[in-house]
Amino acid sequence: MSAMPPDHIATLRSAEKLLRVGKIAAAIVEYTKAVTQAPQDWDTAILLASLHARNNDVNTAVTQYREIATGLTGERMHARAAHVLEKVLALRPGDEDTLEQLAGASAANGDIAAACSHLMRIAERRLSRGEFPRAIDALEKAATLDPAGSGAAGKLFDLCIQSGDLARARKYTASARDCRTLATAMRQGGQAADARDLLRNAYRLDPSDLSSAATLAADYLREGDIEHAAEFLSPAIIGNDPATRAATIDLFLHAGRGDAAMQMAASLAAESSDGIDRIAELACSLANESPDTAYALAELALTPWIEGHAWDSAIAALELFTAAAPDYSPALIRLVETAVDAERLDIADRAQEMLAAAYLAKGEVAEALHIAQDLHERDPRNPRYDALLQRARQTSRHSPAHDDGVIVPMRAAR
Fold first, then answer.
1. What's the CATH superfamily of 6-110?
2. Which of 74, 227, 325, 330 is deepest in the core (most CB within 10 A)?
């Protein structure tokens, strides 16, 4: 203390005495004076913030800790800033502003792994709230810090696809599989030229990717462009290859030969797991264009998956299908049932929400109202469920079949 001004030393002594005799409120007043006298006395500032926390003034403590961390960062004391921010998280676990500040301090201190971990936690919290664009922002920061080791890059592509941000997804295509998945989404969105470019790139990345080659060949054949089709109709894709056969099924469907196509599809699905995968992929690609035909195809894959308790495969296919055909109730019902059987109740809830919206779109108000009531009763604080229930009630009041009787909620097994 000898290097400190006498008045500052006196203030600190007074504060310490008050603290030692249990006068915490009075001690806070004196320590506040001390910090005002010497704003860069970080030890005292940290002690003052901790006293606010002990005195149950968490908001002031958090504010002061974050201001201290900002000051320490400005003086390039990144490790100490990170330590101070950890104190904030002890008071407010999961606070995103603090996590983001902590990620910056950790990165500046060279602790890239810790920085990425904090950013991934932010992304997970945003995902849990359905804030996909903001979750992608956090993952992109982690991927920039550590492209290989953070694990963020691998999640970015799938998340961009899930959120419908196809332009952003293109930045993160890293494999033939990614190119093919994005091509399917772009085709469903009417971006046929971009989809074709992606399939050509998939084939360039992996010449053994017969699915892309077969799809491109089928596209060119539909257009009568035999020359370009020949580029992809190599001997390797002719014969019993499931991808070629799936592309042929697609070609038959678009040529109006549905019966023959369904017979071929049933044979392909019965022969191998790869055949089942290709039929499911084809069904999802057709869902927006021709949902009835696509769902008949999808059932060829769903039935063996569900009977074999391959829940992940069945749910993934149904989610892709319903993303392409969000108002197609048979697929949504199947998704609800499958998710309940698989005990994936979060997915069942989302599917119920989509199903209620689909029923409302088709004027099937009673079913929508039952589902909305069920969702709201299980999570009354969810604003989406509340809005859905209000919409269903409003629609019901204007429905000719409106019934003022008691609503009996539909309940999935929990």
1. Tetratricopeptide repeat domain (1.25.40.10)
2. 325
- Count of residues making up the chain: 414
Asked if 315 contacts 335 with a C-beta cutoff of 8 angstroms, the reply is yes
Q: What's the CA gap between 23 and 101, in Å, rounded?
A: 33
H or E segment to which residue 404 belongs = none
| Selected residue with higher pLDDT from 222 and 372 | 372
Look-up of token digits 């108000």: 365
pLDDT tens track for 32-75? 998 888 888 898 899 989 899 898 899 998 888 888 888 888 88
∠ CA 72-75-76, nearest 5°, is 90
Q: Which amino acid is at 392?
A: A
**HSE-up (13 A, CA, CB side) for residue 173:** 23
Triad 37, 38, 43: Cα angle to 5°: 130
| pLDDT tens readout for residues 86-132 | 888 788 887 778 887 788 788 887 878 888 787 888 887 887 787 77
> Is the predicted pLDDT of residue 334 greater than 80, yes or no?
yes
CA distance 61 to 141: 28
How many whole angstroms from its chain centre is CA 24?
A: 46
Q: Which of 139, 81, 149, 87 is nearest to 112 (CA)?
A: 149
| Residue % of the chain over a pLDDT of 70 | 90
> How far is the C-alpha of 48 from the C-alpha of 65, rounded, in Å?
9
For residue 86, CA distances in Å to 43, 57, 123, 152 come to 16, 17, 18, 23
Handedness of CA 295, 298, 304, 306 (dihedral sign): negative
* 16: CB partners within 8 A, 6+ apart: 27
Q: Where are the domains of the chain?
A: 6-110
CA 34 vs. chain centroid, Å, equals 48
Confidence of residue 399 (pLDDT cuts 50, 70, 90): low
